[in-house]
Specification:
Layout: E1 18-21, H1 27-37, E2 41-46, E3 60-61, E4 64-65, H2 66-71, E5 75-79, H3 85-96, E6 100-103, H4 109-112, H5 117-123, E7 128-133, H6 148-154, H7 175-198, E8 203-207, H8 208-226, E9 243-247, E10 253-257, H9 261-270, H10 274-277, H11 285-290, H12 292-303, H13 308-318, E11 322-324, H14 328-332, H15 335-339, E12 343-348, E13 352-357, H16 381-387, H17 392-400
Parallel strand pairs: 1-2, 1-6, 2-5, 6-7, 7-8
Antiparallel strand pairs: 3-4, 9-10, 10-11, 12-13
Helix pairs in contact: 1-7, 7-8
């Protein structure tokens, strides 16, 4: 685990960029987190009631949600009632000095507040306005709400996840939300780059549906080209075999990636199946995929005679890509995870020093990372308002009217 010392961190690419993050839960906040890791000043704007609902998600440590802590690090936090005219006026003042706004309200909500893209672009033509939604801002489903699992189901991803002939399965990771956050961060930095050439901001429109279709990738393209509808294959790959999990004699699992003919020629003799290496049904990948059931049944039987660790040694010596199927605790404690600085430490105002999942991209001339802990609800409200010209008396009035808390 590493502790980043702010004084030693080189200049970051997004230093000086101010972002208003009005989003909640995962996709939008993850987008803001990635940009904050790269130096942006991200102001999280929460409602004056309970705030971001991810604060309620278990597990908790002394009342603080793990989900909120990891996705909202490096941000400052203020509260604001956007249903009040005074709250709208406050946000408009913040927008005048902002570079980016991120929101993931249901389509039309920001417009109902008088805070849609057109209205705010008129105040600040340089504003990059990023909207995150389930289906995007156009099309017949643009007004529909959507959540991670619903979109995994709607997009077809759930239909190809799980065991053959089994029930559709939700992925254990909220990858549509998180990848939408990545795509939106990519969109924002490109809009900022475009602004350096034109002087103008623009709307960035990201959606879980488009993320899902993009991630379907070769599955979707295969259907478009051939009409073949992909099906669930468990841990297997539709275009490769053997490429899946296998259970060892001791009940532990291993993943073997016999992803090409070269690896197959190594794997077969390593498992005592040398007679299968040049069998016309299995010698080349396209035939192995065609005869997947027979091939993998033989592998299951052979692998079932080995305990996991000895088998991993045999496969490593043979040059066959294979790995144990780790649990989350095992990968978080793996020395490679530590060597890549994927666990950082930061001091939280309530929890003291805590570990936080680090930044997943490394640079040779920058050191992005966790510089400040996730904020308490409204922790920086007075500070942010003062930066935007509000006097102590004006802040007190806003508090008295519950525009901020």
């Amino acid at each position: 685990m590493t502790m980043i010392e702010p004084a030693t961190v080189p200049a970051l690419s997004l230093e000086g960029v101010r972002i208003l993050d009005l989003s909640r839960v995962l996709a939008g906040p993850f987008c803001g987190m990635l940009l904050s890791d790269l130096g942006a000043d991200v102001i999280k704007v929460e409602d004056t009631a309970t705030g971001d609902e991810s604060r309620t998600w278990p597990p908790h440590k002394d009342g603080e949600s793990a989900a909120f802590l990891v996705i909202n690090r490096n941000k400052r936090d203020m509260t604001l009632d956007l249903k009040a005219p005074e709250g709208v006026a406050v946000l408009q003042r913040l927008v005048a000095r902002a570079d980016v706004l991120i929101e993931n309200f249901r389509t039309g909500t920001m417009e109902s507040f008088g805070l849609g893209y057109d209205a705010l672009a008129a105040l600040n033509p340089r504003l990059v306005y990023c909207s995150v939604s389930a289906f995007g801002r156009t099309g017949p489903r643009k007004d529909a709400a959507g959540y991670e699992a619903l979109m995994q189901a709607f997009s077809g991803i759930m239909s190809i996840t799980g065991e053959p002939d089994g029930a559709p399965v939700r992925s254990g990771v909220s990858f549509l939300d998180l990848t939408t956050g990545i795509f939106c961060a990519f969109g924002i930095v490109n809009a900022l780059l475009h602004r350096t050439r034109t002087g103008l901001g623009q709307r960035v429109d990201g959606s879980l549906l488009e993320t899902a279709v993009a991630l379907l990738n070769y599955h979707a393209e295969g259907y478009l080209l051939t009409g073949a509808v992909p099906k669930a294959l468990g841990s297997s790959h539709p275009s490769l075999s053997p490429y899946r999990t296998f259970r060892c004699r001791d009940g532990q699992w291993i993943f073997i990636a016999g992803a090409n003919d070269r690896f197959w020629q190594r794997l077969a003799p390593a498992l005592g199946l040398a007679h299968m290496a040049d069998d016309p049904r299995f010698a080349v990948n396209i035939q192995r995929v065609k005869h997947r059931r027979e091939l993998e049944a033989a592998l299951e039987a052979a692998i079932g005679t080995y305990d996991r660790e000895p088998l991993l040694e045999i496969l490593e010596e043979a040059g066959v890509p294979a790995t144990p199927v780790n649990t989350v605790d095992q990968v978080m404690n793996d020395p490679q995870t530590a060597a890549r600085a994927m666990i950082e430490r930061i001091v939280h105002p309530r929890l003291g020093e805590i570990p936080v999942v680090g930044t997943p991209v490394k640079f040779s001339r920058m050191r992005p990372g966790v510089r400040r802990p996730a904020p308490l609800h409204g922790q920086h409200t007075d500070e942010i308002l003062a930066e935007h010209g509000y006097t102590l008396a004006e802040i007190a009035t806003l508090r008295a009217r519950k525009v901020v808390v």
